[in-house]
Amino acid sequence: MEFQEIFDQVCARADAAAAAQSALALATTDAKNALLLAIADALDANAGVIAEANAVDMRESRANGMDEGKLDRLKFDEDRIRAAAGGVRHVASLPDQVGQIVRGYTLPNGLRLTQTRVPLGVIGMIYEARPNVTVDVASLCLKSGNAAILRGGHAAERTNAATLGVIGKALREQGFDDALVQSVDDFGRDGATAMMQARGHIDVLVPRGGRGLIQAVVANSKVPVIETGAGNVHIYMDRAGDAAKAVPIILNAKTQRVGVCNAAEKLIVHRDVAERFLPLAAAALMDAGVELHADERAYAIIDALPEHDPKLLVHAVDEDWDTEYLALTMGVKVVDSLDEAIEHINRHSTGHTESIISEDYAAIEEFTGRIDSAVVMVNASTRFTDGGVFGFGAELGISTQKMHARGPMGLTEMTTTKWIGYGQGQVRA
């Protein structure tokens, strides 16, 4: 099929989604919640079917050499499907943002103005090896009155098709148009390219995946883009940090799930505590199989440990400080001051999440005030940066830009606003 034909078909699907969305925008909260609960029940009832499709995707991706971090993201077994269904029910329980009045006032001439939340319209998602995103995006879009056009990638194609089949059937049974949630996976990569060029048909495009995917969409899209998070995530151990808190936090942030964007990739340590803290942190990380890419000062301290695996300690190079590993790998750097730590993080971070370990209130205030990232944690794991954990039920993604949203994107971030003026025949003088 020629690209022009693919482009025309993608635009036609987006236009059908827009027509369906205009009806959804008028649906009551009760109707939308009933739809979401029906989708959650259908996911539970068909978990085995979706899991079987996912098992085929997993086998094929493993045979093709996909790394363990990506395989973990691709996995969508019955437990994860049921957890996703639980997330849909949570979204149903949340307040409906559509129609909420942000502010309002009356002009001196009597014209009454209100700024009201309304849906964005047709939201396009381009993502890879993340079948849970299919459920998350569908539930958030439907609750917020939006339609969704999805490109979920080749690796999860069977899983996504099975999931969308379940969601589409639930939409029809509840009296909604199944054009509200559609895929362009059948067009392959050309489908994604067509989405990027479908300005006027798709209202906003959200890429979710590795840095290469995100930057390709940002660079090539004619449709407005919300840039979401590659995560070159840092933890800073301050001179006043508590080692008893720090080691479990670092282990959790690095090793709980290595293939996610909120996993910590860098450990920055103040020189005043480096000699006594780095041996503890390095030993714990190496015991968990983490390869440490250390600068010269950190390397010397870690290399002096009486027992360590030399294969897990390498000299850091300049490229390390900008790398999102998504693997059991962590960069380690010793800095002379809080100021140097902040400058280093702001220079190399992707703007996702950073954490400080400290008992010094002044240091915490300076770090949280000066770090230019979407989320800053204090004495806590970076793994908390998640829409579900934040109470959103799910997330569209974690925005690392400053417009139109920043941080985990839930229902509020999936709306824009409209001004409505109520008059009694007033005219502009």
Just name the CATH architecture of the largest domain.
3-Layer(aba) Sandwich
Across the major sheet, the strand order is 10-9-11-8-7-12-13
- In what range is the share of β-strand residues? 15-25%
The DSSP helix count reads 14
Give an overview of the whole structure.
By secondary structure, this protein is of the alpha/beta class. It folds into two domains: 3-228 and 403-422, 3-Layer(aba) Sandwich (Aldehyde Dehydrogenase, Chain A, domain 1), CATH 3.40.605; 234-384, Aldehyde Dehydrogenase, Chain A, domain 2 (3-Layer(aba) Sandwich), CATH 3.40.309. Helices cover 44% and strands 19% of the residues. It has 14 helices and 16 strands. It has helices at 3-24, 29-45, 47-63, 68-74, 78-93, 131-143, 157-173, 189-197, 211-220, 243-255, 271-287, 296-303, 338-348, 361-370; strands at 101-106, 112-119, 122-127, 147-151, 181-183, 204-208, 233-237, 264-270, 291-294, 313-315, 329-335, 353-357, 375-378, 398-399, 407-408, 415-422. It has a seven-stranded parallel sheet with strand order 10-9-11-8-7-12-13, sandwiched between helices. Strands 5-4-3-6 form a four-stranded parallel sheet, sandwiched between helices. Helix 12 links the parallel strand 9 and strand 10 (313-315). Helix 5 packs parallel to helix 6 (131-143). The longest helix is centred in the N-terminal third of the chain and has 22 residues, at 3-24. The chain is globular and about 75 Å long. It catalyses: L-glutamate 5-semialdehyde + phosphate + NADP(+) = L-glutamyl 5-phosphate + NADPH + H(+). Residues 10-287, 331-420 form the Aldehyde dehydrogenase domain.
